[in-house]
Amino acid sequence: MIPGYPGRSLGLVRNVRLPREDERVRLIGELNREFNRQGRSFFFGSSISRHYTPEEIQAAELFSLRPLSIFEPCGEMCGTEYDESEACPLCGAGARQSTELHLEPESIPKRDLSFTIAREVVVSNRLAQALQAHGMTGAAFLPVRDPTGKLLDDWRQLTITSAPVDIVPPTLVGSNLFDLDEQGEFRCPQGHVLGLGLLSELWVRRESYDGSDLVRTRQLTGLRRGVLHPRPVLLFSPRLYRLLRELKVGRLVVEVTHLI
């Protein structure tokens, strides 16, 4: 038993909130490895929250966006087509959207910025117009249609047009806090996909950043399964961060990204 075990019971599992550097986090990892050797599980998953001081926000050169507003069905389930002729046969990276985005209008959250389960990015017409009016660079705003082909006037698909940035160490990517996928099960040997998900803040190579307000990473996380595709991380500038705050765009979790 873990001394001073915190959290609350959720029936068969327990929800525990701990600082990453807490000694009990290491102990949970050790217990989970021991349980795994016995064919059982002790740890079932985690969600990482990071908090910043005003000074840290002020000093940041880039921010990464962790989507909270996620919905389905995604585009491919509504008639959007993808060309996978040039996709990596090992990880599925490189599939290209070959038609306009089709979505069920009733499924789109009534928010300024949302992601489908396949990470297609949908923004309100209000936000698209604001970004264009303020001269935000690095993105285009494409039409969104319903499954019958009717144009959805209230929505646009946000696509990134700037040069991608390169993820570099000490960024950590893995399956979970206690599994860095050392066997490479979810990593593409061609370097397209780094793993299932980010476990740390993001570090990117400074020379790869072209100064745009919206950029994406060259390397991807996730996996190809059904309608799901490996996905880049969406990044934006402090200038855009301030505008999103001014516009009161909700359901956004942002983290500081480091340029080195």
How are the SSEs ordered, and which strands pair?
Elements: E1 8-9, E2 14-15, H1 23-37, H2 54-59, E3 62-67, E4 70-71, E5 82-83, E6 96-97, E7 101-102, E8 113-116, E9 121-124, H3 125-133, E10 139-145, E11 151-160, E12 173-174, E13 193-195, E14 197-198, E15 202-204, E16 214-216, E17 220-221, E18 234-236, H4 238-246, E19 252-259
What keyword list fits this structure?
alpha+beta, 19 strands, six-stranded mixed sheet, five-stranded mixed sheet, 260 residues
Would you write up a description of this structure?
The protein is an alpha+beta fold and 260 residues long. The chain has a domain at 54-165 and 199-259. Helix content is 15%, strand content 27%. It contains four helices and 19 strands. A six-stranded mixed β-sheet has the order 4-8-9-11-10-7. A five-stranded mixed β-sheet has the order 15-19-3-18-16. It has a two-stranded antiparallel sheet with strand order 1-2. Strand 1 (8-9) and strand 2 (14-15) form a beta hairpin. The chain is globular. The termini are far apart.
Uncertain segments: none
Describe the strand arrangement of the main beta sheet, using strand numbers.
4-8-9-11-10-7
Structural class: alpha+beta
- Strand segment tally: 19
Q: Could you report the average pLDDT, rounded to the nearest whole number?
A: 92
Radius of gyration computed on alpha carbons: 20 Å
Biggest beta-sheet profile: 6 strands, mixed
Q: Which percent range describes the beta-strand content?
A: 25-35%
Principal-axis shape equals globular
How many helices in DSSP terms? Answer: 4
Distance between the amino and carboxyl termini: 42 Å
